[in-house]
Each structure stands twice: as C-alpha cells, then as structure tokens.
Amino acid sequence: MTFLSQLTWRNATKDFDPDKRVSDEDLAKIKDSIRMSPTSFGLQPYHVVIVTDAETRAQIREHAWGQAQITDSSHLLVFCTRLDITEKRIDQLIALASGGNPAAKEALAGYEGMMRNALGSRSAEVLKAWGDRQTYIALGFAMAACAELQVDSCPIEGFVPEEVDKILKLPPHIKSVAMLPIGYRKADPTKPKVRFSEADLFS
User: How many beta carbons lie within 10 A of that of residue 56, not counting itself?
Assistant: First the structure.
C-alpha cells in the first residue's frame, strides 16, 4: 500500500470500532511521520499528546460536541502548538544540527542569525499563527501515514481548546489546535467521496 493508492480509501471516519486497536508498531510509524514532517526553519513548533485513557477521553468529548470518534477510536492524538519557540529553542536546534562540533556550529552562524532575526521580529500572535500552520503540516503527515497503513483517522477542530488544555494539564506554552482520532472503521462508507473538479482547484 502507498499513500497515493489509498487516497480513495481514506475517509474522515466518524464511526470507529472501539474493539480494534492500532498496534504499537503502526503507532510508532505514525509518530515517526509526525517527527519527520517538514517545518519552517526545522524548529518543529508542535507537541502531540497521545490519549488512551478512557476517562480523559470522555472528559474531552464533553467539550467537543459529543463526537463519538474521541472515545471510540483506538488512540486520540491531540496536536498542539508550542509557544516557546524562543532563543533557547534555536540554541537547541543549532546544537543538534552541529553535533557539538564548533566548526559546524560556525558554519551555521548565518542560518542561526536568520532564524533569530525572523522570529524575534514577530509578535506573540503572529508566532502562534505561524506555529499553528506548522502543526497542521505535521497533522497532514500523520493522516498520510495512517492512510498508507490502512489506519482510519478523522481530523477534528470542533472542540474547545481551553477546556482540552485544562483536562490534559498542558503547560502554558503548549496549546491544543486539532485532534486526530485513529483506529479502524466499523464499516465501509456508504456514500461516494465528493470532491471538486481539477478545473475548479487548479489553474
């Protein structure tokens, strides 16, 4: 199976089979797809909380208009934006990229300066919006990995982030922006997938 061959199969699954679990092996592959997703400057301004506890998911469902996917799926992935993309995060990235080699770090000086100038000039609101966009790229990669593995998923924005943040006891610099229940559908969709034409979408 490949992602391209699974585009028709993939659906935003609403009705999950609560008795079917995603294997640890497949979950590891989905996590790796998130970790390897591209982000601006490579700073990865996101964090993903994987929720399996039934009571926690039931509490989240109360603040997500009762959507059954949240409790019936195998795992609930909560995608969050990091607000702590500051000097320390840049320092950490440069240390990783240089491997502690002074010459390699010196070679990255121009790139480091560009990051500091670009991010340092942005307001907190602009940085949050930028981080949200990077987080959604990671969400897309997770959905692609799920499709290739024939694991069902359903992206969700319909929830109250402030309440979910409280339930998950997230620190102030971590803010939930989207959720992705993953698992296995109870039955194949009965309605065909509807998409606009190429002419409508491309020019």
Answer: 18
